[in-house]
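Working notes for the structural subgroup meeting. M.R. asked for a predicted model of this chain before we commit to crystallization trials. I am recording the input and output together here so anyone reviewing the notebook later can reproduce the run.

Input as submitted:
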Amino acid sequence: MEHLYQTIEAQVGGIKTVETANSARFGNAHNYKKIKKRDDLLYLTDSNFFMICEDAGLFNKNARLLLSEKLDLRNRCGHPTKYVVAREETVIFIESLINNVINGAMLNWPRPVGRQQPDAGSEDT
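Returned structure, recorded in C-alpha cell form:
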C-alpha cells in the first residue's frame, strides 16, 4: 500500500486525480471523505482504494484483481482461521507483488522518484 501511496503522491496532480475518481464513485455515499492530502488515503478501505486507483488510471482491472486477490489472502491469514499458508504460496505472494506492483509492471503511472528498479541481472547470494 505504501508504494501505491508514494506513486500517487509523486504523480503531478496525483492526489487531485484520485480525488476526482473518489468523488465520482463515492461522492454520494454517506461516509464519503474528500481526499485532500496523502494521509486522507488511509481512511479508505483497501478494496475501495483499489477501485479508486483503477478509476483514476493508476492501474488497470487486471492489477486491481491481482491486488484484491492478494488482499483476500492477507485477510485469510491475518484473521483467526485454521488456514495454513505453505512456503510456496508465500513466495508466490511476495514475488507476484514485487514483479507486478513494486517494479511497476502493472502501473500506468511512473515510479516514484528515488525508487530505483532492481537490476534484473543481479541476484543476492
